[in-house]
Structures are given as C-alpha cells and as structure tokens.
UniProtKB/TrEMBL annotation, chain A:
Domain of life, source organism: Bacteria
GO MF annotations, alphabetized: ATP binding; hydrolase activity
Organism: Geomicrobium sediminis
Lineage start: Bacteria, Bacillati, Bacillota, Bacilli, Bacillales
Keywords annotated in UniProt: ATP-binding, Cell membrane, Hydrolase, Membrane, Nucleotide-binding, Translocase, Transport
Name of this protein: Energy-coupling factor transport system ATP-binding protein
SUPFAM superfamilies registered for this protein in UniProt: P-loop containing nucleoside triphosphate hydrolases
ABC transporter domain sequence ranges: 4-238
UniProtKB/TrEMBL annotation, chain B:
UniProt name for this protein: Energy-coupling factor transport system permease protein
Keywords, comma-separated and alphabetical: Membrane, Transmembrane, Transmembrane helix
Lineage of producing organism: Bacteria, Bacillati, Bacillota, Bacilli, Bacillales
Keyword field contains Membrane: yes
PANTHER family assigned: PROTEIN ABCI12, CHLOROPLASTIC (PTHR33514:SF13)
UniProt cross-references to InterPro entries, sorted A to Z: ABC/ECF_trnsptr_transmembrane
CDD domains: EcfT
Subcellular location: Membrane
Transmembrane segments: 26-58, 65-87, 247-265
Pfam families attached to this UniProt entry: CbiQ
Entry annotated with the keyword DNA damage: no
Membrane topology, from the record: Multi-pass membrane protein
Length: 276, 266
C-alpha cells in the first residue's frame, strides 16, 4: 500500500526561475486512477518527477508510502514503488530486445536471475508482449514499444504507475492498447497517475487534477469535473463530440447533467420522452 | 527498408561456431593472431589456408560476407605483396619491371604475407559474423572485468556499447526521415558547389544532432526512473555459458598452433 502525499511543495529548477511548482498539496490513495490535465508548461511532468524522486522539492515534502523523497536511502525504493512511463517510446527503450529491456530495471534492482525470468514472463504476459520478447525495438510499433516499457516497470512490482503523456506519440490503435493496459492495471489495484491532453482518456479515470502555473486549480471526481465543461472550453481544450452535443442540450435545458459514458447517454436519449 | 537490417555484421544462421561462447571466440581470435605468424613455408601456409577454410565452411556464413570484409584491406594486402615481391632478392630472377628484378623468392614471400594478413582478417570477421553484437559486448565485458580494480569502467563501457548498438537502427531511421524532409523542401545533396553542398549537409546534420541530444537526455531520465545506479550490485539476465565445446575449440586452436610451431622449428 503506497499513499502519495505532497505537502506545500515548492519547486524550481534554477535559482533564477519563478516557481515551477508552488504551494502544491495533494494526497493520492492506493488504487486511485488520477488524470493530470493542464496546459503546456504548467508543471505536470515536474510534479511526476517529484513523486518518483527524480527531483526533490525545493521546499515542502513529498512522501510515498510514508517515505520522504528527500531521504537518500529511500530513493531506489521509491523509484521502484512508483514506476514511470514516458512519452517517446524510442527514448526509453534501453536494451537490444524486449526481453532485455524488461530485465533492465530488474538488473538495476539486483534481482536474482531465476526470479528475473519469472517476472519477465508474467509481466510480458500481462501486457501482451510475451510473443515479442526477442524482437528488437525497430521492429515494433509505437504501441508495442510502450507496452514493453510498461512491462519493464511492471516487472518491478510497483504500487504506482505514472504515465507522462505515454499515449501522445501513438496512433489510435496504439493508444487503445495502452489505455486497455492501464485499465487492467487499475483493476489490479495499482495506482495510476496519468498525465494527458486527451479528454477521452481522462474520462476513464476516477479523479481529475487540473494544473495551471504550478498550482492545482481543480481537484475533483471525474464525474463532477466534467459537469462544467466551460472550464475546459475556456482553456482551449477540445471536448469529445458526445460531450459537445450534451453541452448544447444542457445549455438549452433539454438535459440537466452530463453523462460521461457515451453508450449510457445514447440509451438515455433513446428512452427519454422529451420534446426532441 | 529498415525492417530487415542486421546490426553489425552478424549473420544469424545456425552453426557450431555460432553456438560457441563469445569469450571462447574472442580468445580464439587472439590465439590465432599469434599462430598465424608461425606459418613461414609452403607446408605451414598450406595448412593455415586449409584450417581457415575449414573454419569458414563450419561457420555456414555465405562466402560473400567474408569477401566484403576483405575488400577494405585488399589494398593493404596488394601493397605488401608488391613490396615483398620487389625487395626480396632470393631465388631466381623471373622478370624485371621499372629497373627492379623480381625474384621467385619475392613472389613467394609476398604470397605468404598476403596469406597471413588474409587469414587474420577472415578470423576476425568470423568473430563478428557469428556472434551477435550483444553477446560480443558481454564477452568483452567479461574480459575487461578483472581490470576494474585498475579503474577500467568495464560495466560502463559495455553498457555504452550496448546502447549504441541498440540506437543504430533508430538513428538510421531518423537520418532517412530528415533526408526525405529536406529533399521535400528542395534540398539536393548531390548538386552544387562544395559550399552549397556543405550547407545542405548542415541542414541534415544539425537536426540529427539536436534530436540525438534530446534523446540522450530522455534516455538518461528513463534509466534513472528505472533505478539505474551503475554497475554496483547489479545482476544480469544474460549469462555467458562456457561449455565443453568451448574448451574443445580452444584446445583445437592450441593444438593447431603447436603443429605449426613444430613444423616450423623442428
Ligand atoms: N530541466 C529543466 N530546467 C529548467 N526548466 C525546466 C526544466 N524542465 C522543465 N522546465 C520548465 O518548467 C516548466 C514546467 O515544465 P513541465 O513540468 O515539463 O510542464 P508540463 O509537463 O506541464 O508541460 C516549464 O516552464 C519548463 O520550461
Ligand atoms: Mg510534460
């Protein structure tokens, strides 16, 4: 069980900079699926890196499972507990084959070889790259590479997985694969922290955190968050089509609140006996 | 197009030599580098040629790969051959060119030298043709490890080699993409004066470099995130297995060396 806790965190990369993260506090419990939205440069990636101890706060505290990221002795533990998948599939594939790449984290952690083989087998099976173990990265699609990266993190048996725009460079098929994998990890009780620009993806999560200028300006359940799509439209986000339609319906008084499941919404439309 | 590229020179076919441990193959190459110089007459050279030919046959690697490996040093071989042919004054005079008398002994000496160099190159090619780059890296690391106490960063060297090998196709792919992008904008790498060509090349090289630096930074972060902290306390998935056949291979090379030595000195 690993709770993430940020308390009054301030952060800047260099002394000359303004605060990149300012007075940020948030608690994320084990098993939650949190989307982090926000405009470019709002500090989302920085927050992610603060959580897995790639960065440490200038002031304030970040703890994972009660251990502070400031504690030198806990860094490796925290990085293993909170795994991270990055945006560019090609920039995080370290080894020559999928199998070697999944092994990379395990080798770093000093896992014995027998155990390593078991974990590679189970992690690769879980994300569906078990038939690609000996493939080289240049023979894989973007989605396959990202799933291999997920397997590499999963093999370390993390409690938390952070996805920093992990679907941004993928084609629709690759996105679907990665989202399906995330869903499955969530069902297994892994905390998912998903930085994204895609509202369709955020709809899958339980909780939405919206960042601006290094601050959290919204933190609510996904159902609540999407009840006020004006918030997103004002910030130039593109609403999914079925929400756009609902926005018109709500604005014209045909519907009282937003339904976030498209099928459910369509069903409700078909069964409603309003004047439409 | 890049779907089929093979990194390095590795030719992935099944053969007894392919199945040997990288370490035994590296050791064998080093031994052969000495043994080759024991051949000094017709008999020993004939044995050397036969032995190397047998190895080539055993490797099941198509002959053209060896020829390709020989091409770059063909000039060197030809040059040493001519040098020896011209400056050795033994045996009978065969003919005269440009005031130099060419003796039969010279031709023979030149041939011997050419055989030695050729044998060396073929033996070295055998190593890279039958061993995957990753195994080769592991093999080198194994030999470098004892020198760690003298400050040789064996793990880092091996990791550096492995990552470079892994990135070759990525780099090629990217080069290809930039080339096409620049061509689409009208860049022509084959026309114009040297200066304009240099300029076009810059438009190709700079983006390649910028992207490489970005990738290096990203990759370092990704490695950190996965708990990389140097070679200390690290375990390995890939293990090298020295088997009976590896010992046999080394014994064979030593025996071969002894045979040549005996023939030469006795
Ligand atoms: N390594 C760095 N050094 C200095 N400034 C940085 C560095 N990385 C990011 N920044 C700055 O921090 C701010 C937030 O960046 P980031 O967390 O990457 O935002 P986001 O992921 O939300 O787009 C940006 O203004 C960016 O310029
Ligand atoms: Mg970012």
């Amino acid at each position: 069980m690993s709770t993430i806790e940020c308390k009054n965190v301030f952060f800047k990369y260099t002394d000359e900079q303004d605060w990149i993260i300012q007075d940020l506090s948030i608690t994320i419990k084990q098993g939650e699926w949190v989307s982090i939205l926000g405009t470019n440069g709002s500090g989302k990636s920085t927050l992610a890196r603060l959580i897995n101890a790639l960065l440490t706060p200038t002031s304030g505290a970040v703890t994972v499972a009660g251990k502070s990221t400031d504690d030198e002795g806990e860094i490796w533990n925290i990085r293993q507990k909170a795994g991270m998948v990055f945006q560019n599939p090609d920039h995080q594939f370290v080894a020559a084959t999928v199998r070697d790449d999944i092994a990379f984290g395990l080798e770093n952690a000093g896992v014995a070889r027998d155990e390593m083989l078991k974990r590679i087998a189970s992690a690769s099976e879980r994300v569906g790259v078990d038939d690609l173990l000996f493939a080289e990265p240049h023979r894989l699609s973007g989605g396959q590479k990202q799933r291999a990266a997920i397997a590499g993190v999963l093999a370390l048996q993390p409690d938390i997985m952070i996805f920093d725009e992990a679907t941004a460079m993928l084609d629709p098929k690759g996105r679907k694969e990665v989202m399906a994998t995330m869903k499955q990890l969530h069902e297994r009780g892994i905390t998912i922290l998903m930085i994204t620009h895609e509202l369709e993806e955020a709809l899958e999560s339980d909780r939405v955190v919206f960042m601006e200028h290094g601050k959290i300006i919204n933190d609510s359940k996904a159902e609540e968050f999407f009840q006020k799509p004006e918030f997103l439209v004002e910030r130039d986000f593109h609403l999914p089509y079925f929400l756009q339609v609902q926005k018109h319906l709500v604005e014209n008084g045909f519907q009282t609140n937003y339904l976030l499941d498209e099928d459910e919404w369509v069903k409700s439309l078909c069964t409603s006996n309003s004047r439409m | 197009m890049l779907q089929n590229i093979v990194i390095g020179q590795y030719v992935p076919v099944e053969s007894p030599i392919h199945r040997l441990d990288a370490r035994s193959k590296i050791l064998a190459v080093l031994l052969m580098a000495v043994v080759v110089f024991l051949a000094n007459d017709v008999m020993t050279n004939a044995i050397l040629v036969t032995f190397v030919s047998l190895l080539v046959l055993l490797s099941k690697v198509p002959l053209r790969f060896f020829i390709k490996g020989m091409l770059p040093i063909f000039i060197l071989i030809a040059f040493t051959f001519i040098l020896h042919a011209l400056f050795t004054n033994e045996g009978e005079v065969l003919f005269t060119v440009l005031g130099f008398s060419v003796y039969s002994g010279g031709i023979i000496q030149g041939l011997f030298i050419a055989i030695r160099i050729g044998a060396l190159v073929i033996i070295a090619s055998l190593l890279t043709l039958t061993t995957s780059p990753i195994d080769l890296t592991d093999g080198f690391e194994a030999y470098l490890r004892p020198f760690k106490r003298f400050g040789v960063p064996s793990h880092e060297i091996a990791l550096m080699m492995a990552i470079s090998i892994r990135l070759i196709p990525t780099l090629l792919l990217e080069a290809d993409r930039i080339l096409k992008a620049q061509s689409a904008r009208g860049a022509d790498f084959t026309k114009g004066s040297l200066k304009t060509r240099l300029n076009t090349m810059t438009a190709f090289i700079i983006p390649l470099f910028v992207r490489s630096f970005k990738r290096a930074e990203d990759m370092a972060t990704a490695m950190d995130a996965r708990g990389y902290r140097g070679g200390e306390g690290r375990t390995k998935l890939r293990i090298l297995k020295w088997q009976g056949k590896d010992t046999v291979a080394i014994v064979l090379i030593v025996l071969f060396g002894c045979t040549l030595g005996i023939l030469r000195y006795v």
